Structure formats: structure tokens, C-alpha cells
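Researcher: Good morning. I'm working through a list of sequences from a screen, and I'd like to move beyond sequence-only analysis. For each chain I'm collecting a predicted structure so we can compare shapes side by side. This is the next one on the list. No need for commentary yet; just the structure.
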Amino acid sequence: MLSIQRVLVPVDFSSHADQAVADAIEIARAFDAHIDLLHVWHLPIQASMPQAGLVPVEVMEGFRKGEHERLKVIEAGVRSEKVPCASHMIEGVPSQQIANSAEELGSDLIVMGTRGRTGLQHVLLGSVAERVVRSARCPVLTAKADDTRGAIRPRVIVVPIDFSGAAERALQAARDLAGAMGPAHLVLVHGYYVPAELEQMLVSESTGGSGGVLDRLSKDAARELEQMLVSLQDAGVSAEYVAQHGPPERVIARVAEERDADLIVMGTHGRKGLSRLLIGSVAEHIVRVAPCPVLTIRPEEEAD
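Model: Good morning. C-alpha cells for this chain:
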């Protein structure tokens, strides 16, 4: 059950953060929740490098004062929408402080903008949003600024399904959002494929090859998705399912684009350590490329 009483919104004064604030206001209204605005203050990288010399105290205080005033303006704007709100300003590494603040404040949801890096910079550093998705214990909603969509109104919700516990929690969260902010139509999406290395082995060792395996994967997925669909429809939830061959992240992004989705709700139980650095996770990839906001839900054993 998705219970939202406190929403944490990281603010960096970008258009993406403005979008996150707008989305958070709509969610807070639907769930009668309180918003906490958070600005993590830190010096620009150039100013903190040894060769740049010491930054005068009065300059640092000027930065802090200016950003504190901007934060208070945003807080006043949220309050003008009749949503209870408080603002917080701390210093440190943004992704770490956002996750820590969510714990300290008892946040039920983080809503934040994402811009994401590309190429080598992304491989080495990722993005603040992806790192928060990775480390936060509560659900995280990521949003990109888009002048055409306005604040979030989920009418079509894509829910990736891999039949894991995380996916079950995501499906329940999507149902809760549809109930609180709907009406909404759910599109369950499953991408099935055989990795290239395994496909080569199957072709060499089995007369059926990879085609036979894909056929079984398709039929098994369709059977389980059909059961989910019947359960949803029996409960009065408008829903359909899509099962396509291909890497899950590509299938999810494609279906979200084709269905003009307003939101993707998905579980995350990604890789750790070096594997994550080199490969990442499906959820983090979707946060980066999705055409709409993405709500990520951690497995229960990781969130508790």
C-alpha cells in the first residue's frame, strides 16, 4: 500500500527542479501530504580546487544567503497552493544528503528532477537522480522539465513486470496512484529475450536453438500476465498487457512512447559494485531515457 504523508523535493533552482515541485504539489494534494524542500549547498567544483585558492568567507556567505532566499521564495509558492511546506538547506554531496535527509525526515517519497549525463561522463559519474534511486530507501519519482505536460496527471501508467517481488510492489503502487489521482489505465509491460552469449550456446547445443526457448518464454509470460490482468479487471482496474521480445529497458521505453504514458512505475533491485558501474540497472537506464516521469519502488526487504 502506497502511503504518502511526507514528500521530499530536492531543489537546485533548475527547470527540472521546478517540474519536480509542480509534480510534488499534485501528489501532496492527492494524498494530503506535507512537502519538504531541500537544497544541498555546495561550492562549484572550480572554486573548491586547491589551485583556485581560498574562497573569501564573505563570498561563501553571499552564496548561501542568496540560495536561502531563493529557497524561501519556492516555499512561499508551495504554501500559496494550500499545501503545507517547510524548507531545509544543508551542505554536502547532493545524492548522499538527499538520501540521508529522506531518512531523517521520515519521507515516504522523493520527487526530483533529472538531467542525466551522457557518454563517458555518465559512465564514470552517473547522475544525482540515478544515485538517489540507487541509495534511497523510499520510492523516488524522477521528472524532466517539459513545457508541454504541466504537473503530473497519471492517466496512462506503464508498469514493467518481471514477476519479482519488486514488480509486485510497483504494481500495487500504480494501483494506489490510479485510485488517488486517477482514473488511470495501467499497461503491464514485459520484455523477454535471450542474452547473446546464451543464444549462441543454445544454438550449438540444442536442435531447438534459441527460438524454442523464446517461444516458451513468451508463452509463460503471457500466461502469468493474463492472470494479473484478470485480477486487475475483476477489481475494476482498467488495464492491458504487452509482452515483446527484446531487452527490457528498450521494450519499456518503446511502449511508454507508443502509449504516450504519463508515468512509469517500476521496481528496482539493481546490481551492486563493479557490475553496477559497468552495466547499471534497468531502472536507472529508464530514469535516464524515459519520455515521462518514472517512479521507482525498492523491494520490501531493501526498503525496510
